[in-house]
Every structure is written in structure tokens, then in C-alpha cells.
Amino acid sequence: MLAEGLVVRDATDRDHEGIQRIYAGYVVGGLASFEESPPSVEEMANRHAAVLAAGLPYLVAERSGVIAGYAYATSYRSRPAYRYTIENSVYISPNLRGAGIGKALMQTLITRCEEGPWRQMLAVIGDSANVASIGLHASLGFQKVGTFRSVGFKLGRWVDTVLMQRCLGPGDSRSPNATVRTKAE
Q1: Could you report the per-residue pLDDT of 101-159, keeping only the tens digit for each?
Q2: Measured between alpha carbons, how far is residue 93 from residues 98, 112, 164, 174, 180 in Å?
Q3: What Rg do the C-alpha atoms of the chain give, in angstroms?
């Protein structure tokens, strides 16, 4: 069940300012992102377009007409053997954390990705002390598969990344029958 009054939908061009505003807070004051300068609205629009061009979902959660959070999937790596593995990202407006928005976004993202050919979803979580994101992912079936220690330096300290993984659909129980297709095909 979605958090009260919450709508999860595909992101559109009119959402870029709200998305950028949320992300900028994580960039400037948090460790979830290893970027150190907030990207512009135009850059966020370019990133949105790249996700869609890859045939992957980019979602927003909206409450009372305001963007409350967003989530999307990207290719894990560009080499062909990784084509069935994707990475997720999810960001929630700071004043709405803990309200079920992240879970609603991630459940929808997982469902949408399972409709495609992808078989593994990875979470690369900034900061091993990010218990909210680690807990969210664990509640959705992600398992911790490792930690890269001190791979980033931000806000005056070394930062870990926690790696979590979950199967999509049949996972690795059988060989894929199709190649990844983009929406343009």
C-alpha cells in the first residue's frame, strides 16, 4: 500500500527542478552521493534522458503536487556481459524520510525492472552508517554482499560504500532468452 496521498509515476520533464532540489541536498550535506557539487537542472534532465534511452524506468513520488522523492535504474556497467545487471538509486525529500516513500518507489522500480530482461539489481549505498537505506533495501530482499572501505573522501572524512544485491524475476536460475532492448527498438 502506498503512503497516504502518494502517487508513484514516471518522471517527466516538469519534474527536473524538484528532482534537482532533492538531490542537491544529498550532494551538499550528505554521504549517500559521492558528488561534491550539485548538478544543474539541465544536467539532471540529461541524466533522466539517458536512463530513458537505455529503456530503464525513472520514477517520482508525488504528494499534493510536490515531488517527494525519486528512484531510477541504470546499467551497472557498460561492458556487454553486464547487460542483465542494473543499479538502483533512490532519494527522498529530507522532511519526508521514514514516511514509506522510499519503499513505495523501490517496490514500483523493482516491479518495472522485472518486466524487462534484467536479472540482478544492485544497490551501491554511500556510507556504511546509512542504516535507513541499508534497512530499506534489506526489507525489499536485497542482501549485503560486501563493503568497500574508505573508497570516498567527502565532508572531511573517509566514506565506505555498502554493496547489496537482489535477484529480479528468475535471477540466475536460467539463462536469459532475450537481449536488453531499448524503448526505441
Answers
A1: 999 999 999 999 999 999 999 999 999 999 999 999 999 999 999 999 999 999 999 99
A2: 10, 22, 23, 39, 32
A3: 16
Q: 143: Cβ–Cβ under 8 A, 6 or more apart, which residues?
A: 164, 165, 166
CA dihedral of 183, 115, 76, 163, whole degrees rounded to 10: 160
Distance between CA atoms of 28 and 37, rounded to whole angstroms? 7
Helix, strand, coil % (nearest 5) of the chain? 30, 30, 35
Residues 6+ apart with CB under 8 A from 61: 6, 7, 8, 67, 68, 69, 70, 71, 92, 101, 104, 105
C-alpha cell, 32: 549517500
Q: How many CB atoms lie within 10 A of CB 177?
A: 6
> Residue 132's CB: how many other CB atoms inside 10 A?
14
Asked if 104 and 159 count as a contact pair (C-beta separation under 8 A), the reply is no
